[in-house]
Design brief:
The strands form four sheets. The chain has a six-stranded parallel β-sheet with strand order 6-5-10-11-12-17, with helices on both faces. By secondary structure, the chain is α/β, with parallel strands linked by helices. α2 crosses α9, α4 runs parallel beside α5 and α6 packs parallel to α7.
Amino acid sequence: MAVAFVKAQLLNYPTHVYQRFQPKIGALGSSLSCEVSKNRRHFIVMSATTVGFPHTPVHASDKSGIPIMVNGCTGKMGKAVLDAAISAGLNPVPVALGGPEDSGKIVDLGDKYVEVHGSDDREFILSSAIKEYPDLIVVDYTVPAAVNDNAALYCKLGVPFVMGTTGGDRDLLYKTVDESTNYALISPQMGKQVVAFLATMETMSQQFPGAFSGYNLQVMESHQASKLDISGTAKAVISCFHKLGVSFNLNQVQLVRDSKEQVEKVGVPEEHLFGHAFHTYRLISPDGTVSFEFQHNVCGRSIYAEGTVDAILFLAKKIKSKADKRIYDMIDVLREGNMR
C-alpha cells in the first residue's frame, strides 16, 4: 500500500538521474526513504518502516505461473533471475529473504513489488508464503555464509529449492537435503552450455586418464574486480586436467581483475567489466610443438539466469511427478533434453 504511493509519486518527479524523497502516509503510519535511478528498471527502497505492521502479509494477487521466491534478489544475479523468470511466465511472490543489510528493501518489478526481509523474521515470512503459495519453489542467490542455514530452513519447512549460491559446506548441504523429504536442485554453475562443457571434460578425463601426461597447463580467468577468488568452474576444469595427467596447482591460475588489462589484453567489452567470466585453458606439449586451447567467455548474467529458469521448470516437473530421486543438478537438467 505504501509502495503503491511511492510509485505514483515517482511519475510526477522531475527527470533527474537520482531523486531522493520520503513520502509519509499517516493512515498507515508508514514512511519510506528511497534513492531511485530513472535509467534503470529496478529501484530499491533503502529503508522502510511500518508502524502497526510487523510483517508484510503475502497476497495471492497473481496465481499464474509457478510461484517462486528469489532470495538474494537485491543482488545482480538475483535481479537477473527475476527478469528471466518473469519473461518465462513464472510468478515471483511479493516477499523474499536477504541479509540484515537488505531488510526493508523493496525491488520494483514494474507491475509488482518484492519486499526483502532480514534474518529476524525469515521463518515466519517463508512459512507464510508457503501457506499462500503451496507450489512455491525457492531460488537462492544469497551469499556463501548463508548457504547451510538457508538450506536447513528450507528443509525444515519442506519447501523445494534451487541453490545457485556457491560456497558453504557442500557436504553438509547435501546431507541436510538427503536427511529431509525435500526436493532440491543444487549447482554452483547454472549456465547450461558451461555445464555441458564441464560434463564433456569430466567424460574425457574418465575415459582417457593420463591422455595429456607431461603437458604444461596455463590457466587464465578474468572476472569482475569484486570476485577475488578462483571460480568453481575453473577448479572443476583443472580437476579434470589432473585426471588427464597434468600437474597443476591452483596458485598457478592467473587471476585477471584489473579493468585495463581485461579490456586491452583479455578482450572484455567495457560494458561488461562488472559482470563477465572469461576463461582460457592452454595445454602445451613437453617439447612445445603441440598446443591445445579450451576457452569459454561469458558476458553478463543472462546465461546463468536462463539456466536457473530451466532448473525451476525441471524441478517443478519432478515434484509434480513425485519422482523418487530428490536431489538434482544441472547435468540432470541437460540430460532431460527439454530446455527452452
